[in-house]
Description:
A: alpha+beta, DNA polymerase, domain 1, 2 domains, B: alpha+beta, Aldehyde Oxidoreductase, domain 4, 7-stranded mixed beta sheet, 29% helix, disordered N terminus, oxidoreductase activity (chain A), oxidoreductase (chain A), iron (chain A), iron-sulfur (chain A), 2Fe-2S (chain A)
Amino acid sequence: MPITLSINGQARTVEAEPDTPLLWVLRDELDLVGTKFGCGQALCGACTVHVDGMAVRSCQTAVGDIGESKVVTIEGIGSREAKAVQAAWQDLNVVQCGYCQSGQIMSAVALLTDNKKPTDSDIDSAMDGNVCRCATYHRIRAAIHDAARRLEA
Amino acid sequence: MNVFFKAPGLASPPAGVSRRTILRAMGGVGIGLVIGADLSLSGGAAQAAETATADINPFVRIAPDGTVTVIIKHLDLGQGTTTGLTTLVAEEMDADWAQMRTDFAPNDASRYGNKIFGGAQGTGGSTAIAASFDVYRKAGASARAMLVAAAAKAMNVPARTITVAGGKLTSGSKTLTFGEVAEAAAKEPMPQDPPLKASRDFALVGKDKLPRTDNVLKTTGKAIYTQDIKLPGMLVAVVAHPPRFGARVAKVDDAAAKAVKGVEGVVTVPQGVAVLARSTYAAMKGRDALNVEWDEAAAEKRGTDALRAEYKAALGKKGTTAETEGQVEAAFAQQGVKIVEADFEFPFLAHAPMEPMNCVVQITGDKVEIWNASQFPAIDTPTAAAVAGTTPDKVKINGLWAGGSFGRRASSTADYVAEAVAIAKAHGKGVPVKLVWTREDDMKAGSYRPMYMHRVKAAVDASGKPVAWKHHVVGQSLITGTAFEGAMVKDGVDATSVEGAAEMGYAIPNRLVELTSTKVGVPVLWWRSVGHTHTAYAVETMIDQLAKAAGRDPVAFRMELIKDPRLKAVLALAAEKADWGKPLEKGRFRGVAAHKSFNTYVAEIAEITMLDKGYKVDRVVAAVDCGVVVNPDVVRAQVEGGVGFGLGHAMQAAITLTDGAVDQANFDTFEPLRMSQMPNVEVHIVPSTEAPTGIGEPGVPPIAPAVANALFAATGKPMLNLPFNRQTIGS
């Protein structure tokens, strides 16, 4: 059935069953492949997107449940927080294989949008659902603190 | 295929670029499908584009706009090889970092072989920089010389008057860019032995800190992985695999699967039953709707408990001698020696890279085109040809970024590539087929780090000096039955099973290292740092037990025993930076380990806090000597990541079997390290002028024993079984 979604500020109509995970609609129907498939069970966070500003695992979000909510993917972020996060990630050479990093960045942007000065423990809570098998955690933590400093300036 | 940047490709030739240049580029590596950054905008349809670039040599091409593209012959699975090899070319060319671009090499061993692999094309064993340091420097220097020769003619000046800097060639008041002379430079004779820079003249190599070439792509969602490939008419295949290794399809009822909307076909292949559909989700739904009966007559049905009992029995028997020196039994029989004995157990481990295995294949007539982050084109190419029923020269592999590997994409059997080709062939419609493994498929597919058991018996004499070491390793061979057997199994000993134990870093006069290679129907494969994942653990924790038996400090004990000054130097540096010997506050403990792997020396010191229940790893101080460093920040990142990767598995990850079936399926039961568990890691690099060695793997082996030794210091009980959290720790 046709379903209309708000994706990155645009209305996009797709032909999909309502139980289809948002992840597969983004990737297979809308060619927004920056959002990654990692586990399919909301255990790794690679598929994290924003739904009304909240970090959400798109692999466990059925398109039929989204309604009018606004979906933003890695391709559509552009807020001050997003720019600070991306700049910090680049300056600190955070990425290795990079496959989890869209999800990491989406979680980090949601965290900093909510909490301008997260502590280490805030970072643990917000980021523990995002797995990085390359274990870039050390730099992700530093980059979130760095982005927070940029946002203060 | 350029997957890195939208190539400066042009639909029509720009002024001044001849048709011949374009044709020449099309014949070389410089032309292909351009699906990089624009994939998301173009509906995923790959579009052909002509690029008016000049191929200066197999590794360097230059576009009219001056961008220099380096052809990367090693898979970049996160270890930063793309940045490293690009740095070498930019250095020797005197290019500007901002003008550098990268592209992946096709499968062509004649141009892109790995000299450490005897010329076979592949990435592994932490060899990329070690094997290609000179190759890429020469490629850059040769390109520079050709640009200078062309510029001299264009400016009508002697070549010696030309200086090169920042991508520009200057003589007096005349200046040309690389782009302006690229086409002419490509026609200059290629110098075979161009002069290379002296290391004191390096402007980029060894300098902090060049940004990684993949920073922007990987922080904007634009890096393209195998999983992201979408081609016109492509079908996605999801496969029902047998529940036990070695089982075969007996009977398939695919009626319900075929009724799923979007499903286009169901085929049986040797690996299982594949459902092909127009979307990934439809293929998954179709797979779930299959009803498959399996013939388990030949399947492996032993579980972890049965294997443990068999391995334990094997430890008590004599193994095949892998290394011997002195008279080990006589030394144990000496008066007054103190003997320490321990059995160790290491579980099967999944690689579980973030990107589950996948592969895109299109068979057209006798041609096979593959899109895959191929780590061993040398294995993937002939395997794909054999499965498709064609010859290797008809197989083309398009390289891509890999979402991790840790050895998984370096399959010695090309397992998932063979599966993808088998499905495309069985489907037989000539459309591209993307094989997608779910996380569960990936975790249950085998190719694990094997389960091992070790028995170590060692002795110190009355003065506290180690005099004897007997070490028996029991577990599956990674190599037997693969294409590597001839080169890597000698006299019944698979070198990868005992590396790190056979050539131990400590001077102990009487030693015997034995191996028993077991036959188990579970597919196994090298896993980041290979044999060192278990040998370093047994050796380094046993050394701490011996130090305790001798009443010695673990660092001082090691310093006296270590033979190689470079290993000593990293241990001394780590100890200094970690304030070894300075008391810690109550409840906190340190542990140390030092190990050489892949010709790189690493020492790590872990600091832990004992909690009411369990412990926390707070800080790790590492020191590394990997010879000449190309990118210090990449080296630091690899050691930081190696520490985290090794730590997660040491603490909490294991693959276990019940009656041959894998118990774990996803990240809830095979638990990866998470943010809250990551310690602070400091990495210190020993300055060196030695030849560059590996860095992707050597950070891994010392972390598990370093933490185990800290736990030993805290509790007095040695940690003998991995993962640690299988046992109760602390009070």
